[in-house]
Amino acid sequence: MDEQIFDWKEVLKLGLLGGIATLFVSLVGLVNTFGKKDVIGGVVSQGLVLLILIWIGFGYLVSRRVRGGNSRQTVSGGALVGLISSATLVVLVLIAEPINLRSVLVNASPALVKLVTFGLGAGGVMFLLVGGTLLAALGAAIPLAPERARRPVLLALVWVLGVGVFQDVLAPVLPRFISRFMFDISGLSILGAIIVFAAVAGLSILWKQQGSGVQLWRDALPADKQNTLRWVLLGAGVLFVAALPQIIGSFLSDTLITVSLYILMGLGLNIVVGYAGLLDLGYVAFFAIGAYVMAVLTSTGDLGLGWNFWMAVPFAILGSVLAGVILGVPVLQMRGDYLAIVTMGFGEIIRILALSDALRPYIGGAQGILSVPKISIFGWRLSGPQQLLYLVLVACLAAVFISRRLADSRIGRAWMAIREDEDVAEAMGVALVKHKLMAFAAGAAFAGLSGAIFAAKLGSIFPHSFKLEVSIWVLCLIIVGGMGSIPGVAVGALFMMGLPELLRTFAEYRLLFYGAILVGMMLVRPEGLWPEESRRRELHAGENNQLAKEV
Question: pTM of the predicted model, to two decimals?
Fold first, then answer.
């Protein structure tokens, strides 16, 4: 077969798209905002890292999307993409001051020019062009490098970037003698960056060489010793979880509580969407019902009954389950977009009812319910984030156990049959009405539990906490983590909810990051970060068939 001609038109298109991306992140203020902190102190700022990632990313796309050509042409195409995309930023730098773009584009400021030109003004333009060109060429060369070298280097660079970005969170957690040489005033120290890079790359290489041997050693053990090893690992995990809140401190504990509550909701919506294939956009309604039932039953104010948390939890879950069944009955014959619209309307109905004056004497209306007491266990009050985190983690573990048991049961297999094809499932004897109602009820139960803990955590409940965005966020974390995957729910929650909580400084760009992450996930890894195995095979069936033909 003759070698295909390299598609330079596609390269030019990627270069223009890369230029648009660099202009966008610069003019909306992302580069300026991120440029206030360094990843490596005095070497590279977070704003420059954002531009570097764009150039490397578009260079990488050359090797993945441009057809034909050899490795030299691929690298040359990547360099051209970097040259074009950095040249657009150079044009912005050169015309920003003479034309006074700040009258229209506020972020086209001297601070931006100084940042992207390394403080050299017009003299730094050449560094900008050369840097963009080389970085995009490097991105194009990444897939051409051997796997044994590429993986450790990329993993180590990701860790250096992560440690540098989250320096404000990690520095107080680490022992003082470690953080003293790992971090300086403005970011990760050069010595710290070298240590992180070397440690991660070394561990990656070591695991690549020894990981399969460890697996074979474990499989070769007798059954009784395998059980002993399993219990030892379980005990080590329990001890780690017990020590975790005291290690990470109050701020990270509070962040993990938020993530864990979304994991609870994600596990419930994963049953409805991931297992049964029923697109529910009104999932926040069950979360709200669980929270309001808990608040009404436990509040010590005028609207409450004064119960304790443990007496109210079963009723909060039961109220959410009943709401799930009530929602499920009228939508049994709906699918796809129609089901999504109806469930979204149900969620808005619950929110509007909570705001209405008609229910104000019972649930407080717009003023909400106050004086919800903290949770107590045998007289021990879980008042702080570090204490409450233990309860939330136990609830998540219980939800994971139930989800896994359901997935492996006859009910779980019936849900998955409904997800694949309702008509075929019904023809094979699956009771659609019963199993759909069970899916809605099971998903609502997890949301109700999450809402009950949420009410006790805040100590007050307001209708504005239960907007449509909550349903969207839960659905997003399932998509990012991997639909139908229990570990994927946890990974998606950490990625979608934990990351924005840690990046509080950049909160105004939170929704922008959500959109970028979702677009990137759909393009690069549509099955999710930790997908269910059957879904991964399904989405990559075409690639596997093509590979088989080439072989």
Answer: 0.80
